Amino acid sequence: MIIKNFSKALYSSWHYYAPDRILFDCGEGAALHLKQEIFAVQKIVLSHGHIDHISGLLSFLCLRQSTKGDTEKPLDIYYPEGDRSIGIMIKAANEMFK
């Protein structure tokens, strides 16, 4: 089992499990490290709304929509119910690409 990951407390945390195409958390720099694999990701699971776990989400979503690759693939994002910061970020990204 190979898991690509990066974690530095209070800065950035993300873990990508390629066989199931799941990105756990999306800290700063996740999209840059994953490069073209951002188009393979089918699910993002966010554990909580701390900045080191979500700071790369907006850039991940923007890169996925604006660069060459299969932007039509579905992407599901899961996060704790009631986590306002994550909900606001996802809503902002959706508004940008209407």
Q: Could you characterize the architecture of this molecule?
A:
This protein is α/β, with parallel strands linked by helices and 98 residues long. It has a domain of 30 residues. 33% of the residues lie in helices and 21% in strands. It contains 4 helices and 5 strands. The protein has a 5-stranded mixed beta sheet. Helix 3 packs parallel to helix 4. It is globular, with a radius of gyration of 12 Å. The N and C termini lie far apart (38 Å).
The mean pLDDT is 87
Main beta-sheet annotation: 5 strands, mixed
The DSSP helix count reads 4
Number of strand elements: 5
Portion in strands = 15-25%
Task: Give the CA-based shape.
Answer: globular
> Which sequence of SSEs, written as H and E, runs from N to C?
EEEHEHHEH
Structural class of the secondary structure composition? alpha/beta
Q: Low-confidence parts lasting 5 or more residues at pLDDT below 50?
A: none
CA distance, first residue to last residue = 38 Å
The Rg value, from CA coordinates, equals: 12 Å
- Strand arrangement across the biggest beta sheet: 1-2-3-4-5
Residues in helix, %: 25-40%
